[in-house]
């Protein structure tokens, strides 16, 4: 078997397999019997609004929260029986920074390395290499409170990579970043994917998921309601285009009736969102009828439209 065959075989390895994964908190079902299969080298997104069960799911995946029921294998082992061993192969970027403010950035990495029995000299060398990789080399000896928000997010990524993990879990990793900081983070995640590191990402940013993810699970109320590649999800669940439009009440009623839109329309705040392949014709028909829209936007469909079509609300609600 040649190296190409070996690489292809490795890509087919299952890194995470969950079946009927369920979690109760005080009698409330936070995660409701979900199934997940994630293969080596994939960058997988778990999307959903606050309270959908995303964070609870990933906490179960890396062994912090035990499932109430169901089966879960991570990196070939039962997480409940091998938590310590498996955690050495998993890097985690949490949503909230938990860097120790009493130490410098490099000291944070050196202290964290002790959990993995990494020798002091090796930890310092790897820490400096990672900081340089993430454009933080000049901040190695700076205390945490003196770092910007974006630097802290990259510092969390550096810490997660310190043990050279096979699996990287990222919980809202770019939250609060400006566009420049977000694009830098995206670049690094793509580079890590190129190195074969499997990644699981939760995010509220639909552009982020569309750009980065090979495969996406969409969650709502503890259940997985859709899954597939970003393109597959959009093609299957939304039209090629979306028309967002705001009309006066009487004109709106006439517009909906004229185009028989009841099944392909959602109301969002003060305007309509219409899933259609005939958006331009609709806009032209409005003009021909002498109807003037207060607001009209024609754009390609995206992942948030998939969620809106399936649930009647936006991911950010």
* SSE pattern: HEEEHEEHEHHHEHEHEEHEHEEHEH
* Strand content range: 25-35%
Give start-end ranges of low-pLDDT stretches: none
Which structural class is indicated by helix and strand composition? alpha/beta
Query: If classified by CATH, what would the architecture of the largest domain be?
Result: 3-Layer(aba) Sandwich
Query: What is the average per-residue confidence, as pLDDT, rounded to a whole number?
Result: 88
Please describe what this structure looks like.
This protein is α/β, with parallel strands linked by helices and 317 residues long. It has 3 domains: 3-89 and 165-234, 3-Layer(aba) Sandwich (Rossmann fold), CATH 3.40.50; 101-157, no CATH class; 239-300, Alpha-Beta Plaits (2-Layer Sandwich), CATH 3.30.70.980. The chain has 12 helices and 14 strands. The protein has helices at residues 3-11, 54-61, 83-87, 105-113, 120-133, 149-161, 179-194, 206-212, 230-237, 249-259, 279-288, 303-311; strands at residues 14-25, 28-39, 43-47, 69-74, 77-78, 90-93, 167-171, 198-202, 215-220, 223-228, 241-246, 265-268, 271-276, 295-300. The strands form 3 sheets. Strands 6-7-8-3-9-10 form a 6-stranded mixed β-sheet, sandwiched between helices. A 4-stranded antiparallel β-sheet has the order 2-1-4-5, covered by helices on one side. The radius of gyration is 23 Å and the shape is globular. 37% of the residues are buried. The mean pLDDT is 88.
Produce the secondary structure layout:
Elements: H1 3-11, E1 14-25, E2 28-39, E3 43-47, H2 54-61, E4 69-74, E5 77-78, H3 83-87, E6 90-93, H4 105-113, H5 120-133, H6 149-161, E7 167-171, H7 179-194, E8 198-202, H8 206-212, E9 215-220, E10 223-228, H9 230-237, E11 241-246, H10 249-259, E12 265-268, E13 271-276, H11 279-288, E14 295-300, H12 303-311
Parallel strand pairs: 3-8, 3-9, 6-7, 7-8
Antiparallel strand pairs: 1-2, 1-4, 4-5, 9-10, 11-13, 11-14, 12-13
């Amino acid at each position: 078997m040649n190296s190409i065959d070996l690489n292809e075989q490795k890509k087919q390895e299952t890194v995470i397999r969950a079946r009927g994964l369920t979690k109760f908190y005080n009698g409330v079902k936070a995660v409701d019997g979900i199934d997940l299969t994630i293969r080596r080298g994939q960058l997988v997104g778990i999307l959903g609004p606050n309270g959908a069960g995303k964070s609870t799911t990933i906490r179960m995946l890396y062994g912090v929260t035990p499932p109430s029921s169901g089966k879960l294998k991570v990196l070939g082992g039962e997480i409940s029986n091998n938590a310590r061993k498996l955690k050495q192969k998993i890097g985690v970027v949490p949503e909230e920074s938990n860097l120790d403010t009493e130490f410098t950035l490099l000291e944070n990495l050196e202290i964290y390395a002790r959990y993995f029995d990494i020798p002091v000299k090796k930890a310092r060398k790897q820490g400096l290499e990672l900081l340089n990789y993430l454009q933080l080399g000049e901040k190695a000896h700076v205390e945490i409170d003196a770092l910007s928000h974006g630097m802290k997010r990259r510092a969390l990524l550096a810490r997660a990579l310190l043990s050279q993990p096979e699996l990287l879990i990222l919980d809202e990793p770019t939250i609060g970043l400006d566009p420049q900081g977000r694009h830098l983070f995206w670049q690094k995640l793509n580079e890590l994917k190129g190195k074969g590191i499997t990644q699981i990402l939760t995010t509220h940013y639909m552009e982020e998921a569309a750009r980065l993810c090979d495969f996406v699970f969409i969650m709502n109320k503890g259940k997985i309601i859709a899954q597939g590649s970003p393109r597959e999800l959009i093609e299957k669940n939304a039209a090629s285009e979306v028309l967002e439009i705001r009309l006066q009440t009487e004109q709106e009623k006439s517009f909906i009736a004229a185009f028989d839109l009841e099944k392909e329309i959602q109301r969002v705040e003060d305007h309509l969102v219409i899933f259609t392949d005939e958006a331009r014709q609709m806009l032209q028909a409005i003009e021909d009828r002498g109807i003037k829209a207060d607001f009209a936007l024609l754009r390609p469909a995206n992942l948030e439209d998939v969620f809106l079509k399936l649930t009647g609300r936006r991911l950010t609600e």
